[in-house]
Amino acid sequence: MRSVDLRTRTAADVRPIDARDFFEHELPALFDARAALAVPGARELALESVALVVDGRAWTIAFDNERFTIDSGDARAATVVRLDATTFADIVNDLVTPMVFLTAGELDLPRGRFEDLLDWWVVLRSVLDDRPVHTRGAVTFLDRDGSPLDLTRGFTTDADPDELVYFLTEAGYLHLVGVFDEQEMAAVSADMDAAESSYRRDDGRSWWARTADGRDRVVRMQYFHETSPALARLLADERLLRFTRLTGDGHRFGKPGGNQNLAEALVKPIGVVDGISDVPWHKDCSLGSHSYRCCSLTVGISITGADAESGQLRVVAGSHRALTRPALIRHDLDLPQVDLPTRTGDVTIHLSCTLHMSQPPVVRERRVVYTDFCLFSGNGDDDPGEARIRRVREGAYRTVSQPPAVGGDGS
After folding, report:
1. How far is CA 291 from the centre of its chain?
2. Residue 247 half-sphere exposure, CB side, CA atoms within 13 Å?
3. H or E stretch covering 173
4. How far apart are CA 346 and CA 179, in angstroms?
5. How far apart, in whole angstroms, are the C-alpha atoms of residue 187 and residue 276?
6. I need a surface site. Which of 122, 127, 210, 386 has the fewest CB within 10 A?
7. What does the DSSP 8-state code read for residue 243?
8. Mean pLDDT confidence for 217-242
9. How many angstroms separate the CA atoms of 50 and 376, rounded?
10. DSSP secondary-structure letter at 151?
11. CA-closest candidate to residue 289, choices 396, 395, 387, 171
């Protein structure tokens, strides 16, 4: 059976990082030993030099189309980012990515472009994690019989599990048609209406947005399973739980590390002018800890249908197989962007490494509930960065009034 377990680290692998030793010894050795993984992709990225300033001491990394160099100082760097020693160690250990600082409003970038920093992050992860930087044409899509894979395919509830696993591992997502009926979805929707009054701005349990008509709207209700009897029944239903056994990797309903936010109810209003409802292109591991927890399965239950006019989910096929930016994707990324229109009662599943976004609704609102099927190590310390990442996810996104500006490279 095909696996989606990409984990290469555990809590035992988190190590202290001395910046001087890293830049003067460890990283040059990695650039030499793993050049074949990083150089072809680095050429396509057309990298500009970047300087990392760690507790006041700077090192500049550059690429001349053939090899990487590291020099002291930041005078010739096109982009400069300042970090403290703890944050730098967290980046090297794959606990966080640069997206953490952007979303939290803590990015210290006195010179250059954030997009260039993200491209260098890809190269660093390549040599640190022994993975190739994505190059054009490296990811292909073939069905089991060798024919082109239909990336828009939806699957019925009686589909062959082997077909589901094959599609999931190739494309990075699934669209499952008619898993639940309209009455069940109406009951969950009614629970959403009833629960709205129990949430408040800055309660640590919800995201809010303001629409063009001046209304304050709760757009994400966390811990929703605790207030919705209808949803609680569905989360225990074999029609849903059977998908935990798709790959044989040991996925289970729930989240590691004692996180009890097991289900979130989302409303996608029309005309959001302040606050974040429709999150732009990102991977669910975009804030960090890919090597400790991917791939989990993110499960979306369509309380209402969705299409291009009502906030549908969009995915980048095969992006789980590609070492790319974790968010703010490049305009020249060659992987196909796929719309996933759904009807009421459909279920979508995407891997935590699959790039995805929700399209802003323009005609009808969308309602959806998200939950997770996660990988657990069983040692009680599944993700050493989870507490920090959770704080960013539950706090930083709420402080962003609109998706970050990303210049010409954003999608």
Report:
1. 13
2. 25
3. strand 173-176
4. 6
5. 26
6. 210
7. G
8. 97
9. 36
10. T
11. 387
Is residue 1 pLDDT above 50, yes or no?
yes
Picking from 99-108, 174-183, 190-199, which range would have the lowest pLDDT averaged per residue? 99-108
| pLDDT at residue 410, rounded to an integer | 34
Question: Of all helices (H) and strands (E), which one includes residue 338?
Answer: strand 337-340
Are 97 and 104 in contact by the 8 Å Cβ rule? The answer is no
DSSP line for 17-86: --HHHIIIIIHHHHHHHTHHHHHHHHHHHTPPPEEEEETTEEEEEEE-SS-EEEEESSTT-SEEEEE-HH
Cis peptide before 294 (omega within 30 of 0): no
Higher per-residue pLDDT: 264 or 276: 264
Cβ–Cβ under 8 Å, residues 45 and 32: no
d(CA 291, CA 195): 36
Q: What is the model's pLDDT at position 382? A: 52
pLDDT computed for residue 390 by the predictor = 54
What is the per-residue pLDDT across 344-354, written as a single tens digit (0 to 9) for each?
Answer: 999 999 999 99
DSSP-derived 3-state class of residue 343: coil
Per-residue pLDDT of 119-137, as tens digits, reads 999 999 999 999 999 999 9
Phi, psi at 265, each rounded to 5°: -100, 125
275: its two tokens: 């606050």
Q: What is the largest CA-CA distance in the chain?
A: 65
- The CA distance from 269 to 219, in Å, is 8
Quick one: pLDDT at residue 387? Answer: 59
pLDDT tens for 299-336 read 999 999 999 999 999 999 999 999 999 999 999 999 99
Token code pair at residue 204: 């640590």
Are the CB atoms for 369 and 303 separated by under 8 Å?
A: yes
Q: How far apart are CA 315 and CA 297, in angstroms?
A: 14
CA-CA distances (angstroms) from residue 170 to 67, 122, 142, 167, 329? 32, 22, 8, 5, 20
Whether the Cβ atoms of residue 118 and residue 80 lie closer than 8 Å to each other: no
Q: Do residues 298 and 352 make contact, with C-beta atoms less than 8 angstroms apart?
A: yes
pLDDT for residue 236: 97
Angle at 198 between CA 193 and CA 203, to 5 degrees: 125
In which residue are the tokens 């062959």 written?
160
pLDDT in tens, 369-404: 999 999 987 555 455 556 555 554 444 434 443 334
Identify the helix (H) or strand (E) that includes residue 402.
none
